[in-house]
Amino acid sequence: MMAASILPAILVFILIFMESQITALIVSKKERMLVKGTGFHLDLLIIVVVGGVSALFGLPWLSAATVRSVTHTNALTVMSKAVAPGDKPRIQEVKEQRVTGFLVAVLVGLSIVIGEVLRQIPLAVLFGIFLYMGVMSLNGIQLTERLILLLMPPKPSAYLMHLFTVIQLTCLSLLWVVMATAAALAFPFMLLLTIPVRMLLLPRLFNCRELQSFS
């Protein structure tokens, strides 16, 4: 029985690792100018250790919580106020701290004992909060910006960027289809298949400079 758990364990490892790394890449973009970048390595170590201990006692695993993490970072981001007409506000700084993250963890723990109070919140309100967090977390993500550019008048110089966006959107759609069907257990393996696409297919279509600017 223990040997049979190897395959599910590998799938869970892939999911948690990829979610943590993707979240770290989104949050620690160069534009944010984060100083405490090594904190992400510490977070990954804590997730691994606590995840192993939780598995022994049947407790839920930790994850990076992409939407919540991106929304939290956006809330701590200070945008420049002195902006020239026609220019977009730029990131001035990010208030890097762990107080709000700690408070969120405490409140999540308290949800166990205040379940009766939380049940009084209408589901429509909860769905509205989740929808707002999801939409707001899309701000600043390069894929979202490039998808918006697809709806704008085309420019000859933007052809390669649109091609990259279409390929990325196709991969994302395939992952969503797999996740929404009975083959959802194979989602981690499908996620790994995007690595050959990135390493073998894309270099044939784009040069290194273009890949760095689009990624």
TrEMBL record:
Sequence ranges assigned to domain Bicarbonate transporter-like transmembrane in this UniProt record: 1-213
Ranges annotated as spanning the membrane: 40-62, 99-115, 121-138, 159-179, 185-206
Molecular function via GO: solute:inorganic anion antiporter activity
Subcellular location: Membrane
Name the record gives this protein: Solute carrier family 4 member 2a
A Pfam family assignment: HCO3_cotransp
Predominant cellular place of this UniProt entry's protein: membrane
InterPro entries in UniProt: HCO3_transpt-like_TM_dom, HCO3_transpt_euk
Keyword set includes DNA-binding: no
Cleavable signal peptide: 1-24
Cellular component terms (Gene Ontology): apical plasma membrane; basolateral plasma membrane
Keywords attached to this entry: Membrane, Signal, Transmembrane, Transmembrane helix
GO biological process, one term: regulation of intracellular pH
Topology with respect to the bilayer: Multi-pass membrane protein
Top-level taxon: Eukaryota
